[in-house]
Description:
Blueprint (H helix, E strand, L loop, with lengths): L9 H28 L4 H9 L18 H12 L3 H20 L2 H12 L5 E4 L15 E5 L2 E12 L6 E7 L8 E7 L5 E3 L13 E12 L3 E2 L5 H37 L1 E2 L2 E2 L4 H29 L5 H26 L10 H11 L6 H13 L13
Parallel strand pairs: 1-4
Antiparallel strand pairs: 2-3, 3-7, 4-5, 5-8, 6-7, 9-10
Amino acid sequence: MPATRALPTEEAVELIQLTRTLAAKELAPRVADAEADGAFPRDVFRTLGRSGLLGLPFAEEDGGADQPYGVYLQVLEEVAAVWSSVAVGISVHALSCFPLARFGTAEQRRTWLPDMLGGELLGAYCLSEPHAGSDPAAMITRAVRDGDHYVLDGTKAWTTHGGYADFYTVMARTSEDRAHGISCFLVPADAPGLSADPPERKMGLTGSATATMRLENVRVPVERRIGEEGQGLKIALASLDCGRLGISAVATGLAQGALDHAVRYARERETFGKPIIEHQGLAFVLADMGAAIESARATALSAARLKDLGLPFTREASIAKLVATDNAMKVTTDAVQVLGGYGYTRDFPVERFMREAKVMQIFEGTNQIQRMIISRALDRDEGGVLTVLGKE
């Protein structure tokens, strides 16, 4: 029961159709075994990249598809409804490419972005540290200038694709200035001194590798610094705004997948002489699940519209992430309930959906951090911008 979508162009319709075809033929047959075995599907990202789905929101001149963010989010949803680990990987890859695409020089973009957006190079994003997850300004990983190189030392935690990525977008401290003492670096995976710990043993998203990255005297050429020295925190926060929209779409797609399975089961399972979907008590649970998904989708697309118009969207991205991930947790829990005892077994995917939904309330900034961002924006009385759609 795919979502109903109103898309801006025929090209966008074709992208959704392509995504649904790839999801059905390439992802669905593999997801259960890969998640059970904790196998990282590196080849899937090459397939998606060569199909044009990794570069959707990036400029054509950089190798992207120049699609509106609202279209990109709906593609993410379609993937997440089938395989959330892959959808999270797409979002993290976009997060890893964003600093270069937005703040890199023309020469840097020409050199690296085409292979990144084409799926030949898979990215990882290194911001959090063991002691500094929700407070990136407290990081202690250092980058010391040494001639035409920087020397990086430190530890980065919770790195999606850690140990499997081909490049790492790393934030490191270049001075003691809390707000302007962090810089951004593009570190190749084969840089001497860069290593990954064994992957974390996670509750869910087991097909997505997450590891601690260690940097020990990693020498990075100056030309691999993205943006100006000291601009890293600004780059990181701008990246996170986009990443939160990505995760809101992943959570919405995950919830849609859970609803689809619950509805299918409720149509087939009979009690007291009729399908359980015809019993009002359960039908109302499904109705609430559907309403939660539609509200999450609308909230994310509203924030994406602001981004596409070039308007501030930090508060709206946090709202979208908060609403979508909280709703996904509720929807997937209810999906397990709809299936009853079967929902608690690994014979059906809804228990996996429930485990996967939990982490979405945590990464890209916990939902408590999202509430802090939203409340601070309200305190500053931000908002009230009036824009005419379509006006140059």
